Amino acid sequence: MSAPSTSGRDSERANSNALSTVTARFTLHLHPSKTQDVIEGVREQLNLGLLRYSEDLGGVVLAYSNERVTGRMARLHPYFPFLAVAVVARVTLFCPRPGQHLVGRVIKVGTDYVGLLVLGVFNAAIGAERIRREFKCSPEAGCWVSLRDATHRILVGSYVRFVVDSVLDHASLFSIVGSLLDAGTGEEGHCSSITGTQQALASKKAEQQQRPGSKDRHRRRDGEQQQQQQQQDGKAGKGKRKEKQVDKGEGMDKRRKHGAGDGTPAAKKKKHKTS
User: Fold this and answer.
1) Confidence of residue 48 (pLDDT cuts 50, 70, 90)
2) 3-class SS at 184?
3) Tens digit of each residue's pLDDT (9 = 90 or more) over 75-98
4) Is residue 268 scored above 50 in pLDDT?
5) Based on the number of CB atoms within 10 Å of its own CB, is 100 exposed (0-12), middle (13-18) or buried (19 or more)?
6) CATH numbers and ranges of domains, the chain
7) The pLDDT of residue 263 is above 60
8) Measured between alpha carbons, how far is 44 from 122 in angstroms, rounded to an integer?
9) What's the CA gap between 29 and 85, in Å, rounded?
10) Which of 59, 79, 166, 182 has its C-alpha lying 20 to 30 A from 128's C-alpha?
C-alpha cells in the first residue's frame, strides 16, 4: 500500500524554520601531535560535535564551514598535555522549538504511537494521547486513518506534519515529542489541501467585499440599523414620559386626599354643611 506523500525536498523546506546558521566561537584542546597541521586537528574536534546537541549553541550541530584559528598563541593545559586553541566557524544548527511545525517521514506505526524521522536523522514520536480523536488506529491496515476522510491515512513512508510539543536530550540522545492535536496537522498532502481550501475561501470573501456595490450595501445596512436604533430609543423615551405623567397624577390625588382633612376651603365647606 502506497501513501500520497510529498518529496524529501518539500519536507526539508517545511523544516527550514527550525534551521539556523550562526557564527560560533570554540575553545578546542588539541594534542601536541597536531601542531604540525593545526587546522586538521581543529576539524577532527569539530567533527566529534556533529549531530550532537550543544547547550551553548542551543541546538544540534549539523554542519560547519569557514573554520579558522584566531590568534597565534595557544595556552597549554596545566594538568594535561593539550593545547587550548581558539576557533571561529560558521555553524548550521537544528533547533526546533515547542509550537513549531515540522514534517517527518513515518518509520513506525503502532496502536499507541507514531514514529518518524525528521531530516532523515532525528527521531520524533507522537503518542496516542497526542493524536486527535479524528484519527483511529487500524492494526489490520497498519495505519492511522481519519474518520472524516478515509483517504487521509498515516502509514509507514508517508510524510506527516506535526507540532513540536517538547525536545528531549538525554546523554547526547536527541529526540522530539510531537503532537497531532491541531487541525492543520496530519499527512502532508492533506494538510496542504486544507490550507489551499482556507486560502480560497479567504480570497473569495475578499473579492465579494471588493465588488462595486458591496460598499453601498454595507452603507445602507448601517443606515437602516441606525434608524431602527433611533426608533427604539424614541419609544423608550415616550414610555418614560408617560411614566412621569402617571406619577404626577398620583401625586396630585394624594395631595387632594390629604388636604380633605385639613383646614383647607374644601374641608371648611364640608364642615359648614354638616353643621
Assistant:
1) very high
2) coil
3) 777 777 888 899 999 999 999 999
4) no
5) middle
6) 18-94 (3.30.1490.120), 101-191 (2.40.50.140)
7) no
8) 23
9) 6
10) 59
Q: Are 69 and 85 in contact (CB under 8 A)?
A: yes
Contacts of 35 (CB under 8 A, 6+ apart): 83
> Binning pLDDT at 50, 70 and 90, where does residue 129 land?
very high
Looking up cell 560560533 gives 24
Q: Which residues are CB-neighbours of 27 under 8 A, at least 6 positions away? A: 84, 85, 86, 87
Q: What is the mean pLDDT of the chain?
A: 78
- Are the C-beta atoms of 83 and 29 separated by less than 8 Å? yes
Cell of 30: 588539541
Look up the pTM and report it: 0.63
The Cβ of residue 41 has, within 10 Å, a number of other Cβ atoms equal to 21
Residue 85 burial (CB count, 10 A):
23
Give dist(CA 61, CA 147) in Å, integer.
40
- What is the Cα–Cα distance from 16 to 222, expressed in whole angstroms? 47
Residue 271 above 50 pLDDT? no
SS (H, E, C) 85-126: EEEEEEEEEECCCCCCEEEEEEEEECCCEEEEEECCCEEEEE
